[in-house]
Model the fold of this input.
Amino acid sequence: MIFLAEIFHITVLTALLILGIIGNGFLVVVNVRKLIQNKRMLSIELLLTCLGMSRFSLQILLTFQGIVSIFFVPFYRQNVYGSQYLFTWMFLNSSSVWFATCLGIFYCLKISGFSHPYFLWLKFRVSKLMPWLLLGSVLVSGITGILCAHVFDYSTVSYVDWYNNASLASPDSERRKSNNVLVINLVLIFPLGLFVTCTVMLLISLYSHTHRMQTRSSASSNPSTEAHLNALRTVITFFCFSISYFAALMVNLTHRMPVRSIWFFFLKDVMAAYPSGHSVFIILGNSKYQQSFRKILGLAKKP
Done:
């Protein structure tokens, strides 16, 4: 049974890795190509490039972790929960969430039709503020990674039976370290909360816009409505992926699931779906990216 679970786990990880490389790599390559051609990059292009790079790296890291947990258990024990790897993992994890939150804020400010003075002030300045928001996201993610690596380093434990989740270290000490990491990662609730707020504002704006169109007896399909719907598809899919990833991450950090168990593999698969799935939906929700992707496929088919 475990052997079949391992085969299925490897198959899922491989498929998600290919999907993640294609989706995130496409976002990075297309936007960098525009930068080279135009000698400048729009704020949304810079944001999607950062998002694609962080998720590309996170996808590779999660795939590496999943493969190592099957074939190289001693290495997994010594390195995956060591300070260096844990810093990299938590940094990429946090930066990916913060970059996606910046994307939700950008969509909310640019597409929503609210007329409050403060909202309008942010609406016309979000493009100039975006590089600073991204820089702040990197700094916060770095601090999160450093704190996690400092309080939680399982590589210093003298012996851990990862097959049965048994340890010769003090249970109280391990529990305290796990609790500290959980508390640190609870800071991710803040960007998720911001993202939920932006989603709600987009829904309210869409409702108000639809109501105005119906009052004026206008057609329901117009550019503003389509922009609202595309933005909502993007943010809602991110919300679904992020909630599932966040829940799996929190359970994984408690170390209650024995390594190489079915539930352990399930958690790893859920986490690996996050960096690839949302990027694919971003491409599907953007007509320009769809056209560029079709051109690439068309060139690939040429002899």
